[in-house]
Write a structure and sequence with these properties.
The complex is a heterodimer of chains A (115) and B (115).
Chain A lengths: L3 E4 L2 E4 L5 E7 L5 E8 L3 E10 L2 E4 L7 E2 L9 E3 L8 E8 L10 E2 L3 E5 L1
Parallel strand pairs in A: 2-11
Antiparallel strand pairs in A: 1-3, 3-8, 4-5, 4-9, 5-6, 7-8, 9-10, 9-11
Chain B lengths: L3 E4 L2 E5 L4 E7 L6 E7 L5 E8 L4 E4 L2 E6 L4 E6 L8 E8 L9 E3 L3 E6 L1
Parallel strand pairs in B: 2-11
Antiparallel strand pairs in B: 1-3, 3-8, 4-5, 4-9, 6-7, 7-8, 9-10, 9-11
The chains are: A mainly beta (115), B mainly beta (115).
């Protein structure tokens, strides 16, 4: 089954404790990205990757890191989480990126709470 | 800068009613437009993708239209059912080139279909 998976689905942590949210897709997509969704603000892009070893900042990259060592995986790293990073996070992938975005497939989301 | 607006923010209708959800965007130079559905606490499911050269797309009881010149898209849901209750989001690719590009989302319309 074609899908984007994220782990963990739920996470409660404390300020400053490094964490990683994994994202994996099995559709051989070149393009992957991370979004956060907050009430009243909607979905905002954090980082994206056009292909392996190619990553770039989205609208709200501060406090986050990503890596793309393999085509299928695109982990999101919070080196020192803060309460303002409490949010619902989504990973997405598509076969094209940039202006020529094709249909995007989203993961189920990771609800993160930083105390 | 591309902006996407969805009105109304919430809509409640009785079961069986036909309804229209609206999406407007400020820059008509889009490559495509995508409609998504999001159930509470869940990820986004792609419903329809309309390419810029198309006027509409249909999937079952859903019909999406696109009018680039006026910067508008509508999602028509025929014979609504309680299972259609969800938040519906529209999204378009960013309006500037280079390697950066991704989806700009509206804030969604929360639909409630009452039995």
């Amino acid at each position: 089954e074609a899908q984007v998976t994220q782990n963990p689905r739920y996470l409660i942590t404390v300020t400053g404790k490094k964490l990683t949210v994994t994202c994996s897709q099995n559709m051989n997509h070149e393009y992957m990205s991370w979004y956060r969704q907050d009430p009243g603000l909607g979905l905002r892009q954090i980082y994206y990757s056009m292909n392996v070893e190619v990553t770039d900042k989205g609208d709200v990259p501060e406090g986050y890191k990503v890596s793309r060592k393999e085509k299928r995986n695109f982990p999101l790293i919070l080196e020192s989480p803060s309460p303002n990073q409490t949010s619902l996070y989504f990973c997405a992938s598509s076969s094209e990126g940039g202006f020529l975005v094709n249909e995007q497939f989203f993961g189920p989301g990771t609800r993160l709470t930083v105390l | 800068k591309q902006e996407v607006t969805q009105i109304p923010a919430a809509l409640s209708v009785p079961e069986g009613e036909n309804l229209v959800l609206n999406c407007s965007f400020t820059d008509s130079a889009i490559y495509n437009l995508q409609w998504f559905r999001q159930d509470p606490g869940k990820g986004l499911t792609s419903l329809l993708l309309i390419q810029s050269s198309q006027r509409e797309q249909t999937s079952g009881r859903l019909n999406a239209s696109l009018d680039k010149s006026s910067g508008r898209s509508t999602l028509y849901i025929a014979a609504s059912q309680p299972g259609d209750s969800a938040t519906y989001l529209c999204a378009v690719p960013r309006d500037y080139g280079g390697s950066q590009g991704n989806l700009i989302f509206g804030k969604g319309t929360k639909l409630s279909v009452k039995p």
